[in-house]
Amino acid sequence: AIEYKNGEPGDDIYVTVKLGENSYDFCVERYLTGPDTDVYKAVSELAVGDVVDVEGFLYWYEGPNAHITSVVKG
Asked: What is the pTM of this model?
């Protein structure tokens, strides 16, 4: 699932991916990887059923926050 913050492309992207029975939530932060970056464009074009490899980082702010910095369709 892909959802844009405020419902508009160009803002943060919230991504949910599934691996087996588990779901994982990620974010593509506009201020880190904006709309002109390869990762932002790649995530924007993902469709249900795409198989991907993702890289990113995790930081703690009021709970875990996972951010995507690279995505490759497999």
From this structure: 0.85
